[in-house]
Design goal:
With 440 residues, chain A is mainly beta. Chain A is built from 3 helices and 31 strands.
Chain lengths: 440, 180
């Protein structure tokens, strides 16, 4: 046994031991990925197959390593070295690695691990090694049921990412979105949820009613979305574990554009009535709505700052749709968008440093970012029909919908800096994404 | 002041139209003196020439009758909810028809083109539906017979991605339902 392994459980708060690391502090010195610049040189990393197996899952060691490798590679910050080049076997890596073997293939870091039967079903241990320093950077044990193996792989990926970048990870998270199929005039739309990498996909509505813009609560347990149960759009609230959904507000008028507050206690909703759309705040547990805007213009698409103190929203009070910022209780609003064209769908980064938005100019839609005071604006996508941005849990990556000429639509991710654009796999066409926080 | 005058004129026009629109609907072949004037008015709005070919097929007071012989939709300029002259004429025919068939209720659906974000377009669609509703109410249609909704960009009349298609999609559509 190697020293320095801390231990925890993946499943709902059943941590069997504390995360406190017996990690040698000297190891903190050298290996670090610089993600402050846009175009980083990816760090070469080796992810060995995990040794051992779980009952009925002989391939689990490979499967976990594959998910970790795909996560790290997909981040754009790592280059995962092909496993065929590895000199040491997974079983040999149960002991301290022969670092010379890994230096030879230019790996700067090495992820190894084991899979074994455990008290909850499966026990997975992993270690992250600094190949050049010859030291362990992290060691962790996870206990869970075997069905949760992908979550273990995502949690290990997050630990590796956090240890090597100094920022929080984003892999153990989910995406809710609208799955689309059929001709444009009779598009069938369903609310769907999946892991961040597209796995464990399932539909939450059956497609019989038009549904739009699902949002996942900060605790990851509830969703709010628009549904047309009759002729009018209304915001509904439901539990992800199932059960009936309920209308958030019981009033005349159309309700849409739901957004959870960072603490989950409040849901902002747009109420449209008599030709006027205003933003109201509704307690998530039910209760009367409180009006936040009273302009006769369109006020919609709100987004909270991560501290919950401010709200950025979309309004045409100045003649064209632009972005404004106001306090959490409404009142005076300050325009922050002054570039070319029209603006919409603002999304405040969970880090607080940027607001992503859709910019429309000359019939083209682009994703852009600006500081909350409107400075440092730049467009980061070039395709003509990109919209509906939202953020990864760590505020590094923007997830958005890209439509192709002809109507097909897919989810894409791009780094905040405009690099590493990638498609997110979905079974059908996709739009209106929302990215959860890290799963508690 | 000027608005009132326009409205008054409109109401007169409707009074004139309603009898003529009745004629093709029934398919009974009744003619009256106003017929020629009425039909040219209708033509400027929604193509009465097409309608005349289908007269025999529709039941007076039905939604098909409304769509074919009255015109169920008005169109808007980009990001606008202002009803233009052609739209006012269509809504005048709609109001007359609705007063002729008092048991009918109507939902006015606001729609937009695909330019603009999904949520902004839901709001804009509601604004257009309300503009059409307000005009129908001003023409005397009882408010409790009218409902509004918005589909934003979700239900395009023409899925094409060009200005001609967009112009057809920027619309408020009056959908009539018989209450019994």
């Amino acid at each position: 046994m190697i020293a320095g392994l801390s231990r925890r459980s993946v499943l709902g708060g059943m941590a069997t031991a504390c995360f406190a690391a017996a990690v040698p502090s000297v190891a903190r010195a050298q290996l670090r990925v610089d993600i402050t610049r846009g175009n980083v040189e990816p760090v070469p990393i080796a992810v060995s197959r995990f040794a051992g197996s779980a009952p009925g899952r002989d391939d689990l060691g490979s499967a976990i390593a594959d998910v970790i490798a795909a996560n790290l590679q997909g981040s754009g910050l790592f280059r995962v070295i092909d496993r065929a080049a590895y000199i040491q076997s997974a079983d040999e890596l149960r002991d301290v690695p022969r670092f010379a073997d890994w230096r030879q293939i230019n790996a700067q870091a090495l992820v190894v691990g084991t899979v074994a039967p455990g008290p909850q079903g499966v026990a997975v241990e992993f270690r992250l090694w600094d190949v050049f320093a010859g030291s362990q950077l992290r060691g962790l044990r996870f206990d869970s049921s075997a069905e949760q193996w992908r979550r273990i792989a995502h949690k290990i990926s997050d630990v590796v990412y956090e240890r090597m970048t100094g920022e929080r990870g984003y892999f153990d998270s989910r995406i809710v979105y609208i799955s689309e199929t059929g001709p444009a005039a009779r598009r069938v739309k369903r609310v769907a949820i999946m892991d961040q990498d597209g796995a464990n996909h399932r539909f939450l509505t059956d497609g019989s009613n038009l549904v739009l813009t699902p949002q996942i609560s900060p605790d990851g347990r509830r969703i709010a979305f628009i549904e047309y149960r009759g002729t009018q759009p209304r915001v509904y609230l439901g539990e992800l574990t199932g059960g009936p959904t309920r209308p958030l507000l019981d009033l005349d008028g159309l309700t849409f554009s739901p957004r959870f507050s960072p603490d989950g206690s409040t849901i902002l909703v747009t109420v449209a009535s008599r030709g006027n759309s205003d933003i109201v705040a509704v307690p998530a547990t039910g209760g009367p709505a409180r009006r936040l805007t009273d302009s006769p213009a369109i006020d919609t698409s709100p987004t909270f700052s991560p501290d919950g103190a401010q709200i950025c929203f979309n309004s045409d009070r100045g003649g064209t749709p632009q972005l404004y910022v106001m306090g959490r209780n409404g009142g005076a609003a300050r325009r922050i968008s002054y570039g070319q064209g029209r603006y919409g769908s603002p999304a405040w980064s969970p880090r607080g440093d940027f607001i992503a938005f859709t910019n429309i100019r000359g019939g083209s839609f682009h994703i852009g970012v600006m500081r909350p005071d409107g400075s440092d604006e730049r467009l980061i996508t070039r395709s003509p029909l990109d919209q509906s941005p939202c953020w990864s849990p760590n505020g590094r990556i923007i997830l958005f919908a890209r439509e192709a000429r002809g109507g097909s639509s897919q989810l894409m991710t791009i780094d905040l800096t405009g690099y590493n654009e990638r498609g997110v796999p979905t079974p059908l066409d996709a739009s209106d994404p929302d990215w959860s926080r890290l799963i508690p | 002041m000027r608005k009132l005058a326009v409205l008054a004129t409109s109401l007169l026009l409707i009074a004139g139209c309603s009898s003529t629109s009745e004629e093709p609907l029934s398919g009974s072949g009744t003619t009256n003196g106003d017929g020629t004037v009425g039909s040219s008015d209708l033509g400027s709005g929604f193509g009465s020439g097409v309608a005349s070919g289908e007269l025999g097929a529709v039941t007076p007071g039905s939604s098909a009758d409304f769509e074919v012989n009255v015109g169920d939709r008005v169109f808007f300029a980009f990001d606008s909810s202002v009803i233009d002259e052609a739209g006012r004429e269509t809504l005048q025919r709609q109001a007359a028809w609705l007063q002729q068939f008092p048991e009918v209720r109507a939902t006015i659906e606001g729609h937009t083109d695909s330019v603009g974000t999904r949520e902004y377009n839901l709001a804009l669609g509601e604004r257009r539906a309300t503009a059409a509703r307000n005009y129908l109410e001003a023409l005397g249609v009882a408010p409790n017979r009218l409902q509004t909704t918005s589909y934003g960009e979700e239900r395009p009349a023409d899925p094409g991605d060009n200005e001609a298609a967009h112009a057809l999609n920027r619309r408020a559509v009056t959908v009539v339902t018989l209450t019994n």
